[in-house]
Amino acid sequence: MHIADMAVSVFVVVIIAVSFLSNVVVLICFLYNQEIRKQVPGLFILNLTVCNLLLTVSNMPLTLVGLINKGNTGGSGFCQTVGFLDTFLTTNSMLSMGALSIDRWVAVVFPLSYHSRIRHRDAVIGLGYTWMHSLSFSTVATCASWVGYHHLYASCTLCNARASGSRTQFIIYTVVLHSLTFLLTLIVLCVTYLKVLKVARFHCKRIDVITMQTLLLLVDIHPSVRQRCLDEQRQRRQRATKKIITFIGTFVVCFAPYVITRIFELFTLGQINPHWGVLSKCLAYSKAACDPFVYSLLRNQYRKTCSDLTNKILKRSSFNSSARMVENGRVNDTNNFKPTH
């Protein structure tokens, strides 16, 4: 095996492990914490988590096997099913990210009317659209037999070779697919999160004015306290920017190389480096490993839930261990006791 293939294979194994464990933790937190289940964004996070888990257990292992065996690992029907899931789950995940950004925008820009603007019914309608959107594109590709094993990406996905008889239709389909998924979601992310950043900076400026006025009034304040207030002021300004960069940056870094390669593949006559094709596919997979941290596990509510679950498990384990020690002590005392006649 080529050294590049070995490196990519290790990368896929790491992605599978991190994606599976982190998404399972998010799912456990969702099922355990009633407050998370009551929140409207919880529905979108649940949908995103389930899509990531299915992608992790169905498509990623087959890509790993394709890298090792240098070819298709199943029959035509099996590969078409996996390719259907690839298009459906990837599209559904992207649209779920767009829905989460819209929810965050409404929550920040319209905080007083958020619960009247975004309700569970609206979230269900949004989820219904994401499923209809994803099912439509994946069904069209499967029915047109455009899904198969693609050696460039070492996976069962949309395949140019299977569309040789209807190349124009395939080009139109691919361009529309990525325009209404990747490009549309990217525009929604940029518009909503930049508006959120604008509101966050406005509030930071108001807090900064109040902080500076307070520091000017407190002339006897210790220099270390003053410096700490200024440091917190600077961190507050940077925190919102870092979060927005994380939301948009992970989406672009993970999906853009794969989408650009797909579009470039349609119009180029030359051969694309297969190592780059597999790497771009793996970067798209890596979004499933990033999402649990970006949208869930780094939030205080999920961190507290994880801490509560860990403490509960450790206490139960400690209690069981103590109970066993007490029981063993009683048995030893009974064995050591010798009645006198």
TrEMBL record:
Q: Any idea where the G-protein coupled receptors family 1 profile domain is?
A: 22-295
Entries under Gene3D superfamilies matching the protein: Rhodopsin 7-helix transmembrane proteins (1.20.1070.10)
List, alphabetically, the GO terms of the cellular component aspect.
plasma membrane
Source domain of life is Eukaryota
**Subcellular location, in the record's words?**
Cell membrane
* Residues spanning the membrane: 6-32, 44-68, 94-114, 126-150, 170-196, 244-264
Keyword set includes Zinc = no
Alphabetized GO MF terms:
G protein-coupled receptor activity
Pfam family of this protein, just one?
7tm_1
Q: What does this protein do?
A: Orphan receptor. Displays a significant level of constitutive activity. Its effect is mediated by G(s)-alpha protein that stimulate adenylate cyclase, resulting in an elevation of intracellular cAMP.
- In Swiss-Prot or TrEMBL terms, this protein is called G-protein coupled receptor 26
Q: What is the lineage of its organism?
A: Eukaryota, Metazoa, Chordata, Craniata, Vertebrata
Q: Which gene encodes it?
A: GPR26
